[in-house]
Amino acid sequence: MAVRAADRPVLPAVPAVTLDDVLRARKVLAGVTRVTALEGSRHLSRLIGGPVHLKCENLQRTGSFKVRGAYTRIAGLSQGERAAGVVAASAGNHAQGVALAAALLGVRATVFMPVSAPLPKVAATRAYGAGVRLQGQVLDEALSAARQYARATGAVFVHPFDHPDVIAGQGTVGLEILEQCPEVRTIVAAMGGGGLVAGIATAVKALRPEVRIVGVQAAGAAAYPPSLAAGHPVAVAEPVTMADGIRVGRPGDVPFGIVRELVDGVRTVSEDALAGALLLCLERAKMVVEPAGAGPVAALLADPDSFEGPLVAVLSGGNVDPLLLQRVLRHGMAAAGRYLSLRLRLTDRPGALAALLEVLSAADANVLDVGHVRTDPRLGLAEAEVELHLETKGPAHCDEVTAALREAGYRAAEWPGESAAPI
């Protein structure tokens, strides 16, 4: 799905962000953040028919681009504001960015995180020196708690995306892209509240207005398409996606105004597409990215003919929970036709399971897991049921494995479709 940001009603005035703001942010960040690598991708280049490069913000300090905006915002505080400390809310990446920035600047930081925040992100935020408070099930609830804390204590609230200084800091990604790939024609980046895409668009459109900027949202947390259609920020009641980095219920007022004016389109991608893109980044690019960071690659895989190279896809973060990574990789393998789940009925006699495994071995299927059930009301007296999780070489191999099992006389409790598509 694509939505163009054009011909929208006039919005109320919001603080402007300019190229000069981004250039000042780059000076502030000099020696603090990394100029992250731009890596070519032969596979994606062949897919879209033009050069594709990956902007590796997953290799940035704290593992994401967020430290750029957080440091720019905190560095701009007065001495009195710094003395009062800062407070933020985040599912993880902004939390780590604020924690590191505050530590570097000698400012006390408190971060509110949803109770569902990945444990590695919580641990990393504490390790950078911030006090962490777990509150609320979703980010919006943590944001509300952080604002209440700011009012009660006088601490400065550092918003993850809805502030000009934060957007200016994120915009330094755009400056680096133009310097590293002067011939770029398309830039694709994931978006939740919109700070990264707004910052990139501010910098890039001021210097190269012909460059196309495309934002990518998870379909289950896509607040920008209805917001752009309405002409003002619209909240998604219950954003649902495994991509916690972009699971935001409402666009920020400041980034929305920029996206509305400067961004050429917003795409939405499915959870299957995110899982497949994460798997591709790991296998083909040797890059560990979180689901949000894989968003641009998911958009390319979903509709490669609609993108023009040279293209830069921003891998916005790499802070993925290992348990989530395990689930996502298995899901990605299933989406790519490389993972097959079956429940088979067989006669409950000695050697029956070994015979089944011989059939699978002959079909060159890799058995990942086997579950064996003998006692169940659904089974006959002499029957057993086996649940199999298999790694295959793709959809065609799934068909071959299923055909081999059928030919050997096995009955499935539920065959995965006539084409043996993975379940």
From TrEMBL:
A single GO molecular function term of this UniProt record: threonine deaminase activity
Protein family according to the UniProt entry: Belongs to the serine/threonine dehydratase family.
UniProt entry tagged with the keyword Signal: no
Name under which the protein is recorded: threonine ammonia-lyase
Domain ACT: 341-422
Domain of life, source organism: Bacteria
Alphabetical list of SUPFAM superfamilies matching this protein: ACT-like, Tryptophan synthase beta subunit-like PLP-dependent enzymes
Transmembrane portions of the chain: none
Enzyme Commission number(s) from the entry: 4.3.1.19
Primary enzyme class: lyase
PANTHER family (alphabetical): L-THREONINE DEHYDRATASE CATABOLIC TDCB (PTHR48078:SF6), THREONINE DEHYDRATASE, MITOCHONDRIAL-RELATED (PTHR48078)
CC cofactor: pyridoxal 5'-phosphate
Alphabetic keyword roster: Lyase, Pyridoxal phosphate
